[in-house]
Structure formats: C-alpha cells, structure tokens
Amino acid sequence: MIKQRLDALLRYIEENIDTDMDGERLSCVAAYSKYHFHRLFSANYGIGVSAYIRQLRLKKAIYALTYSDSSVIDIALTCGYQSPEAFSRAFKSAVGQSPIEFRKKPDWSIWHSRYQNINNIRTKVMNEKLSSIKVEIITFPEISVAVMEHKGAPSNIGNTIREFKEWRISNKLPPERHRTFNFAYADPTKVDPNEYQFDLCVEIASTFEVKHPKVTKKTISSGKCAYIRHIGSDDEITYIINYLYANWLSELNQEVRDSPAFFERIKIFPTVPEAEAVTDIYLPLM
Q1: Rounded to an integer, what distance in angstroms lies between the CA atom of residue 114 and that of residue 23?
Q2: pLDDT by residue (tens digit) across 228-244?
Q3: 34-45 and 116-129 helices cross at what angle (nearest 10)?
Q4: Which residues lie closer than 8 Å to 163 by C-beta, 6 or more apart?
Q5: CA distance 251 to 135
Q6: Lowest mean pLDDT: which of 48-52, 77-81, 251-255, 280-284?
Q7: Nearest to 12 by CA among 32, 34, 27, 33
Q8: In this structure, are residues 257 and 166 in contact, taking their beta carbons and an 8 Å threshold?
C-alpha cells in the first residue's frame, strides 16, 4: 500500500512540476496526513519531497538554458521561481555557475553529482516496473543518418548535444521533418568514462552531403528488432535496455544482431515536460 501511494505521488510531482505544490496537496495525493508523508518520502527515497521537487525544477531549467532560446527570466518563472534573483541563487548553489555563465559555457560536473538523488529514485521505481514492460518484435526499415559521435564522460554529453543541435539548424534539418535517433553502445553507469560513446543522429536523404569535421554518415540497417515505446525520463532507459539484455533475450530465446541498440526520439525534453517525453527503443535481433 505504501509503495502504491508513493508511486502515485511521484507521478503527480512529475506531471505537475510546473505548478505550485504545497504540503497539503501533496499529502492528499499520497493519501497520508501531512504529519507522516514527509517522513515516509524521505525514509523511502533518501531525500525530502521539497528537495526532490527543487532538483526536478533545476533539471528543467538546466536543459532549457542549454537547448532552448528562452530568456533567463522566462525560464525562472516557468520553473516555479518567484524572481530571477531567487532562481540565480538556487542555480548557482546547485550547479556552481550562474544561469548566464552556464548558458555561455556549461560545466555539467557539479550538477551530475547532485542529480544522483533523482536518478536513484527513478532507478528504484523502474526496477519495480520492468516485469510489466511490453516488448514487441518488429521489422525496422533501413534509414540513412548523419551522426555526431559523443566520446568521453557521459556528464559532458550536453555540450555535444548543443553542438549537434546548432549543426542541424544550420543545415535545415528540424526534428519536425527529420527524425532524431541515437546509437547507444554501452551502459553509461558501467563503462569507463573515457570509453563511453553515444551517437547523436538525424535522418537524411542518401544523397545528403556532410560538410563538417565531426559529422559522418551512417546507416541504421533494416531487420528484426525488439521494440519498446517508453514514456517518461531518459533516466529510465538504461534500465529498460539492461532488462532486454539480462532477461528478455533468454526468456524469448532471441539473439542480438551485430549492431548497437538505438533510440528514436519522438517527443523530446525540454520541448515537452519530462514525464511526457516519448522514446522508441530498438534492440536489433538476428
């Protein structure tokens, strides 16, 4: 019963992160008195509910500063801060840079260490959901993609994403008309940071000419794939992939093809709220 109530509370927080959430409302969602739900939340997740909400809002602000053109004032208000000054203080305390400094030259290292609390909570919840995930077997058609490879620490991928986005804009490859993909070569939590690689990809015509030293052409091969549609945070995707490798393949007696797992980004955070992000996950099969 406690687990179900806390799961409902987590869903409510993620789906309403842009709204005011006081203790009275949160305790009603959790179906516990305000005298107990704070302790239940922190005892189960190792962080207070208010601190958890602040971290989710800061994550949204960080991604908006990096990947959108919204003003700092608009981002502050959208993320629930009463003034740009309050936002700037909270941001610098959490990230080590002011919002303006981060937008100009982001340093993700401090944020990634503090963000672990959110990741731990989502890991716990996701591990409980894995057995109910719906997996389909489909045939994926061949697609040509332009690729910018991120190599090195996963914490620095934000800088590569920004550079790739700027290249897409300059080459008139908007996500509304050109599908967005990723190749995932390894579990970022298990591989040595120096050996980590993650490809950022955009669908192109086979005749498209690439004129950038960091962008190459690759092909997503046609063939059979395990397929899962995931709605929610990217934080949960690693655990879904690990479930496919560790459980689903042996249970269904399937073998993997010599090709990495890949994703298609259907709806991307922060363009949509994190709880509404949609990612199609594919694992190539023999």
Answers
A1: 24
A2: 999 998 888 988 998 99
A3: 90
A4: 148, 214
A5: 12
A6: 77-81
A7: 27
A8: no
